[in-house]
Amino acid sequence: MTSPLRPRRSALYMPGSNQRALEKAKTLDVDCLLLDLEDAVAPDAKQLAREQIVAAVSAGGYGEREVVIRVNGSDTPWGEEDLAAAVKADPDAILVPKVNTPADLQLIAHKLSVLGASDKVRLWAMMETPEAMLNAGAIGACGKDPAVRLSCFVMGTNDLSKETRARLTPGRAAMMPWLMTCVAAARLGGIDILDGVYNAFQDEDGFAAECAQGVDMGMDGKTLIHPKQIGPCHAAFSPSEDEIAWARLINAEFDKPENAQKGAIQVDGKMVERLHAEMGKRVIAIADAIAART
Ligand code: COA
Ligand code: MG
User: HpcH/HpaI aldolase/citrate lyase domain spans which residues (predicted)?
Assistant: First the structure.
């Protein structure tokens, strides 16, 4: 199912236990907020984090930012209470960690309806286990089933590195097959996909390079760990002026009466097909959606 176009260039994680961060989020120019109850929160702070997130999300004040709560897995002591609390808070989406199979998502979706979650609440899936990499197509295909509510994949590259022992090196050669498989799986299901985090948040050049790589791979955006990563992330994931101008130009060319019957034309020395014009329309739609929010 294709959802309305919503920019998801940036998604900033913040620990639910960090009240200051939950407050600061209201002032940050970020597309999505990932309010975390899972890995960023120590076991003895889980309860506090849950209460703070429910209070913050219920109170609102996050404007157009897409508010997403990451719960603990169903196989942990906190999973069930997290899910109930998240439903009560009524966020835009609930991010499910360590999804392994379509059945994992189907079960959570079932629990959401039992808990009386409102229709707007979507499911996002962390793709971060070896099993998920091998089941990516089937998990992505859940995007076609409205009952599952799936609308986005989030790459969990740190967990993936831990579980597979593949290293996160500059260029991410070892991760590429999984990342691209997940891009294909997301497209199969008609959902978005966000790239993993870049841990060395003081390394601006390394971060910019990884953002550019994510754009080339077809990622819709990137998950972030620190506010200073938002600006460079938006610079990378927003269509450039040149891209927008090119998209407008090729669409204008195809709109000319003399090209009405043509499938391929020449523009500025390049072969352009109607599929390129379609791609261009998407670039323009994203640029318009970004302009509408800022
Ligand atoms: N969300 C919102 N605000 C954040 C933030 C985040 N993820 N990370 C830092 N900030 C805020 C700080 O509160 C601080 O605000 P202030 O100046 O108003 O006090 C400001 O940004 C500067 O923070 P800084 O001192 O540079 O960082 P730090 O040492 O306080 O925190 C981390 C560093 C890595 C612990 C922190 O960025 C963090 O918790 N990131 C998210 C981790 C996470 O959620 N991981 C799970 C998924 S991978
Ligand atoms: Mg993880």
Answer: 9-227
The amino acid present at 24, given as its one-letter code, is: K
Q: Please state the domain extents for the chain.
A: 10-237, 241-293
Domain 10-237 bears CATH identifier 3.40.50.700:
no
d(CA 282, CA 278): 7
> Distance between CA 50 and CA 68 in Å, rounded?
13
Residue 240 tokens, joined: 């450039």
- Alpha-carbon Rg for the chain, nearest whole angstrom, is 20
Each as own residue / partner, the long-range contacts of residues 263-266 (CB below 8 Å, 24 or more positions apart, any chain) are none
| Sequence letter at residue 32 | C
Nearest to 38 by CA among 65, 92, 75: 75
Q: What pLDDT digit, counting tens, does each position of 234-273 carry?
A: 999 999 999 999 999 999 999 999 999 999 999 999 999 9
- Which residue in this structure is represented by tokens 């003081």? 202
Task: Give residue ranges with CB within 6 A of ligand 1.
Answer: 12-15, 20-21, 24-25, 36, 39-40, 197, 225-227
Ligand 1: residue whose CA is nearest its atom 13: 21
**Dihedral, CA of residue 212, residue 213, residue 217 and residue 221, to nearest 10:** -50
